[in-house]
């Protein structure tokens, strides 16, 4: 069996104070925020599913950031810390000095609420990424499955796919209006799977797509990102079907509160 060299790259953790340059509604459930600032210099993201930690203004409207220590981040005593959430760098343009982050608008979480209100000039801070999981580029094809929270990573993955490289993509979204135009130089087949009111945490269209997907000849890497329990279950199903564990990356992008 061929050995495909997936690699994990480690990066020095840096906190960067940035500001909103642009805010655009992509779909009913997705908003794109373009960030910039002098401190973006030196930022590097090596993989489409990298994660950065976004630090948002606290309840008093201030950015209160931790000090990075060998024991981890530490906030000053008595400080009201900025809430922090993990997000995917959708696009980094070093020449323009911008970093694009797409936000799923759901519920009243601090990040989604901030993104809905964000205007040019608003302050935010970005930490990381601390590491990048770089998938080998010599697989015969890639099967990519995710819900709307994975769309930023999927979109970036397809944009960075080399010409002619094959990818079979399944994206579960709230409804048809949440489709996006995803550009790629690869040989890509995208299937959109609207939930149309079905709960996002329940087994459904992604699992069915995985069971019934047209076979792909050769070595296929599987990338899965959705609700945590669902991602674990799909990984288990693939392993039971004989897919090598290092040909699978299944990540819980969020967790349903039972």
UniProtKB/TrEMBL annotation:
FAD-binding FR-type domain: residues covered: 7-136
Pfam families, A to Z: FAD_binding_9, SIP
GO MF, any single term: oxidoreductase activity
Family matches, as SUPFAM superfamilies: Riboflavin synthase domain-like
Family: Belongs to the SIP oxidoreductase family.
Name of the featured protein: Siderophore-interacting protein
InterPro entries xrefs: FAD-bd_FR_type, FNR_nucleotide-bd, Riboflavin_synthase-like_b-brl, SIP_FAD-bd, SIP_fam, SIP_rossman_dom
């Amino acid at each position: 069996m061929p050995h495909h060299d997936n690699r994990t790259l480690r990066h020095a953790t840096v906190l960067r104070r940035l500001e909103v340059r642009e805010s655009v509604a992509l779909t009913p459930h997705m908003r794109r925020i373009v960030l910039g600032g002098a401190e973006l210099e030196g930022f590097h993201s090596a993989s489409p599913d990298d994660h950065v930690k976004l630090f948002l203004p606290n309840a008093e409207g201030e950015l209160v950031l931790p000090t990075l220590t060998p024991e981890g981040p530490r906030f000053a005593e008595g400080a009201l810390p900025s809430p922090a959430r993990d997000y995917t760098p959708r696009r980094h343009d070093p020449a323009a000095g911008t970093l694009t982050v797409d936000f799923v608008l759901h519920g009243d979480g601090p990040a989604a609420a901030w993104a809905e209100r964000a205007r040019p000039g608003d302050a935010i801070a970005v930490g990381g990424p601390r590491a990048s999981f770089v998938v080998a580029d010599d697989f015969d094809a890639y099967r990519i499955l995710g819900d709307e929270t994975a769309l930023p990573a999927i979109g970036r993955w397809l944009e960075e796919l080399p010409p002619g490289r094959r990818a079979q993509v399944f994206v579960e979204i709230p409804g048809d209006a949440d489709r996006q135009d995803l550009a790629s130089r690869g040989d890509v087949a995208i299937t959109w799977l609207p939930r149309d009111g079905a709960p996002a945490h329940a087994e459904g269209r992604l699992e069915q797509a995985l069971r019934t997907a047209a076979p792909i000849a050769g070595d296929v890497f599987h990338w899965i990102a959705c609700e945590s329990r669902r991602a674990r279950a799909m990984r288990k199903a693939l392993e039971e079907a004989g897919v090598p564990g290092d040909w699978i990356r299944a990540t819980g992008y969020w967790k349903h509160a039972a």
